[in-house]
């Protein structure tokens, strides 16, 4: 404490001596010495003030942009997403900005900008004291405030938000002082910019950062938004419109206020005339031209593959957080695995087949609501419970203090709504509850396709319309039904069984734990039609016909825990409930992981993580991310080969549930196909996963809620709902000459221990009464021999 007192006393003494010395300069001196001294004092004081502001002396002035920040600053820039075939499919941005270089812009824009905003731009060092003095005089004499900021000062404001992001310190609370401090910071920052960048660089930075309104940041986005052109092709009158908007982006917006915009445009053209950059003839012809807009505001949901782009955002979220990147501001170039042609084929297949399915669904239910229990009675409060999750319900609940009568009254009041239809969205008047009833009649789908050898996702359809349904069905959790039998039989192959080993299709029962009753109960699995044939079937036939009894028996024989472990190794990420019913797909998974797990079998037992992004470049073109190429052995080659044969058996064995695929792919004799259907118990979920050696795809079809479904299996089965989407996709892709490399066959086994007798041969006739609901109709069954002959089975 004594030390601090000594320091304070010494400082005070030094200040007194310094002040005495300074006053001595003026005493007894001639007037001109006093004037020079006073002037020098003001200059020194001003320099010291600038230095104090810049370093935030004693915290009095608040933080300012440092020299390092100014040199290395980068404005927010949109990240661009590209497909595998080099098509930009969209952007991520908070400010829609794509930078350009100085030479990318028509010089007429630079001319118009300088003539209007800063005519002495090339002659000052960031601060135009002549313009500042004129503005100060006008304010004092005429009380007319006019702008005196140079382009460099405006750039300082745009880049560093010195008036909002940087505080003005302790002195900023004094009236009038805050504005002085902010203006000083702009001056200092402008001078630093001039010291570190050329005039052309400053112009370019300004054009890339300035806000042109309508969510258009930077000259490139503004040209696209207002005129659907590029900066290189700007005309003089278009450049004048854009420069004119800089004074007030709303008041001089050519779409909102065309007359104001035209007047302002002509002022800019007049400035160009006055500075000698337009002739009188050019000025006269341009000022009478109307403003011709080609207006289109780009938003974050413009572009292609919207569900996929949302998935990419989620896919990269951890990587961005760990590596310090922001998708919305860092101007990344993200190269994805999606192929735009395959994506188009996938969307077309989903749309066309779901449109037909929707008609069948509507005819199936008629006037009855599809949210029924097993006795065809409407589920109580089904629609009302959905409404309770909506923002409008929460607003009404708060407004009327939980008064249900008032809430119900407004929920049943008609109002304008925009609704989805296959003929295009339309507007009508409908109450909130009726609009829910209308929208919940729609069936939904998800679809994805993966290259099994790379894990690359080539197509992704999250649902029918992103604008209406944001919830992505590719990642939605649903019961996989019989598609899960892949893992049951894979584990059987792991433990030494072969496709031609046999098990009996017969009744059996077991004790299982019931969570609701909190006790063991007797469970007797049944086949889809409720009957057992008693036939001793090959595993290949049992899998092809999707016989439940044999799948459950194999599950118990191999061990449910080991089946779950194999499923996880093959690519299932979701937790699995290790109960006997797991063999029939009772535990929820999502479509992406299911298709990826099937890809493991096609890839000879080697598992990949699904890959959505191959590489990422930063805004300078440096590669900062490349997709990992690691793969791990999930199952042995022997097991994978056997399961490839089992999957193909679904299209070759009598009663195979995937036989419908031949309607779409029978002309591709140079390619092997297989697949597996699945349908959950109450027909809420219909699945199909189709395989070929170089491409695997899968589809899910169902209602938004599990209570919405077909009442009978015949209409809701996977072979009639999900399979046609995959079939049409395969047909479209393989018919396209660009995708010739996706053709191929599995070939003979590479393992000498695999004998023909273990998997080859069409089984002798086995009763088809035990077929799952995914079976063929009678007409298709008559074509089995013809199809088998055509593929050489």
From TrEMBL:
Compartments where found: Cell membrane
GO molecular function: penicillin binding; peptidoglycan glycosyltransferase activity; serine-type D-Ala-D-Ala carboxypeptidase activity
Domain named Penicillin-binding protein transpeptidase: residues: 447-693
UniProt cross-references to Gene3D superfamilies, sorted A to Z: Biosynthetic peptidoglycan transglycosylase-like, DD-peptidase/beta-lactamase superfamily
Stretches that traverse the bilayer: 31-52
GO cellular component: outer membrane-bounded periplasmic space; plasma membrane
Catalyzed reaction equations: [GlcNAc-(1->4)-Mur2Ac(oyl-L-Ala-gamma-D-Glu-L-Lys-D-Ala-D-Ala)](n)-di-trans,octa-cis-undecaprenyl diphosphate + beta-D-GlcNAc-(1->4)-Mur2Ac(oyl-L-Ala-gamma-D-Glu-L-Lys-D-Ala-D-Ala)-di-trans,octa-cis-undecaprenyl diphosphate = [GlcNAc-(1->4)-Mur2Ac(oyl-L-Ala-gamma-D-Glu-L-Lys-D-Ala-D-Ala)](n+1)-di-trans,octa-cis-undecaprenyl diphosphate + di-trans,octa-cis-undecaprenyl diphosphate + H(+); Preferential cleavage: (Ac)2-L-Lys-D-Ala-|-D-Ala. Also transpeptidation of peptidyl-alanyl moieties that are N-acyl substituents of D-alanine
Keyword Cell cycle found: no
Ribonucleoprotein in keyword set: no
All copies of domain Glycosyl transferase family, residue ranges: 89-272
Predominant cellular place of this UniProt entry's protein: membrane
Gene Ontology BP terms: cell wall organization; peptidoglycan biosynthetic process; proteolysis; regulation of cell shape
Pathway(s) it belongs to: Cell wall biogenesis; peptidoglycan biosynthesis
Keyword terms, alphabetized: Carboxypeptidase, Cell membrane, Cell shape, Cell wall biogenesis/degradation, Glycosyltransferase, Hydrolase, Membrane, Multifunctional enzyme, Peptidoglycan synthesis, Protease, Transferase, Transmembrane, Transmembrane helix
A Pfam family that the UniProt record links to this protein: Transgly
Similarity-based family: In the N-terminal section; belongs to the glycosyltransferase 51 family.
Stated name of the protein: Penicillin-binding protein 1A
Organism: Prevotella communis
């Amino acid at each position: 404490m004594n030390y601090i007192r000594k320091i304070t006393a010494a400082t005070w003494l030094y200040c007194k001596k310094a002040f005495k010395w300074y006053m001595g300069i003026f005493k007894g001196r001639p007037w001109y010495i006093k004037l020079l001294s006073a002037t020098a004092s003001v200059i020194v004081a001003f320099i010291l003030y600038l230095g104090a502001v810049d370093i935030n002396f004693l915290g009095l002035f608040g933080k300012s942009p440092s020299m390092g920040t100014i040199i290395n600053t980068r404005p927010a820039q949109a990240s661009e997403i590209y497909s595998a075939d080099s098509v930009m499919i969209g952007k991520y941005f908070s400010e829609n900005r794509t930078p350009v270089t100085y030479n990318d812009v028509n010089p007429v824009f630079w001319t118009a900008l300088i003539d209007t905003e800063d005519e002495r731009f090339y002659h000052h060092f960031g601060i135009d004291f002549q313009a500042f003095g004129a503005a100060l005089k006008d304010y004092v004499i005429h009380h007319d405030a006019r702008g005196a900021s140079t382009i460099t000062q405006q750039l300082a404001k745009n880049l560093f938000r010195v008036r909002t992001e940087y505080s003005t310190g302790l002195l900023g609370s004094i009236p009038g002082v805050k504005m002085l401090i902010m203006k000083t910071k702009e001056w200092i920052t402008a001078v630093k910019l001039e010291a570190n960048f050329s005039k052309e660089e400053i112009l370019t930075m300004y054009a890339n950062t300035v806000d042109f309104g309508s969510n258009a940041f930077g000259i490139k986005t503004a040209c696209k938004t207002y005129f659907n052109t590029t900066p290189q092709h700007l005309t003089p009158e278009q450049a004048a419109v854009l420069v004119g908007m800089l004074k007030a982006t709303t008041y001089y917006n050519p779409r909102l206020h065309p007359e104001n915009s035209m007047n302002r445009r002509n002022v800019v053209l007049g400035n160009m005339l006055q500075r000698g950059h337009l002739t009188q003839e050019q000025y006269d012809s341009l000022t009478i031209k109307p403003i011709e807009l080609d207006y289109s505001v780009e938003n974050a949901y413009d572009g292609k593959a919207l569900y996929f782009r949302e998935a990419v955002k989620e896919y990269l979220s951890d990587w961005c957080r760990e590596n310090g990147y922001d998708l919305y501001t860092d101007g990344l170039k993200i190269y994805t695995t999606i192929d735009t042609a395959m994506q188009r084929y996938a969307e077309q297949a989903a749309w066309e087949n779901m449109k037909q399915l929707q008609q069948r669904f509507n005819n199936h239910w008629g006037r009855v609501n599809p949210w029924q229990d097993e006795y065809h009675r409407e589920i109580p409060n089904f629609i009302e419970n959905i409404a309770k999750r909506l923002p409008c319900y929460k607003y009404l609940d708060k407004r009327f203090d939980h008064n249900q009568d008032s809430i119900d009254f407004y929920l049943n009041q008609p109002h304008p709504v925009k609704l989805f239809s296959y003929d295009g969205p339309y507007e009508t008047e409908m109450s909130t509850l009726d609009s829910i009833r209308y929208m919940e009649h729609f069936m939904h789908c998800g679809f994805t396709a993966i290259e099994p050898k790379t894990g690359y996702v080539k197509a992704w359809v999250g649902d029918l319309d992103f604008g209406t349904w944001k919830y992505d069905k590719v990642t939605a959790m649903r019961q996989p039904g019989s598609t899960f039998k892949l893992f049951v039989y894979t584990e059987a192959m792991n433990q030494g069984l072969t496709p031609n080993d046999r098990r009996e299709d017969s009744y059996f029962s077991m004790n299982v734990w019931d969570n609701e009753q909190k006790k063991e109960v007797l469970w007797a699995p049944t086949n889809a039609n409720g009957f057992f044939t008693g036939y001793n079937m090959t595993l290949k036939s049992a899998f092809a016909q999707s016989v439940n009894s044999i799948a459950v028996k194999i599950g118990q024989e191999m061990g449910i825990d080991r089946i779950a472990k194999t499923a996880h190794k093959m690519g299932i990420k979701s937790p699995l409930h290790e109960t006997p019913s797991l063999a029939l797909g009772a535990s929820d998974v999502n479509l992406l992981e299911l298709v990826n797990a099937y890809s493991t079998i096609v890839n000879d037992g080697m598992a990949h993580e699904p890959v959505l992004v191959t590489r990422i470049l930063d805004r300078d073109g440096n590669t900062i991310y490349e997709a990992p190429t690691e793969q791990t052995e999930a199952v042995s080659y022997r097991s994978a080969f056997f399961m490839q044969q089992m999957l193909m058996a679904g299209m070759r064995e009598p009663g195979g549930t995937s036989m419908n695929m031949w309607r779409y792919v029978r002309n591709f004799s140079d390619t092997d196909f297989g697949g597996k259907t699945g349908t959950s118990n109450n027909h809420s979920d219909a699945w199909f996963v189709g395989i070929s050696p170089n491409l695997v795809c899968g589809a899910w079809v169902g209602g938004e809620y599990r209570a919405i479904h077909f009442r009978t299996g015949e209409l809701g089965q996977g072979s009639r709902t999900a399979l046609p989407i995959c079939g049409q996709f395969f047909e479209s892709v393989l018919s396209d000459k660009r995708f010739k490399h996706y053709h191929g066959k599995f070939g003979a086994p590479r393992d000498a221990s695999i004998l023909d007798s273990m998997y080859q041969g069409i089984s002798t006739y086995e009763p088809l009464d035990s077929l799952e609901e995914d079976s063929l109709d009678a007409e298709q069954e008559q074509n089995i021999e013809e199809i088998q002959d055509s593929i050489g089975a």
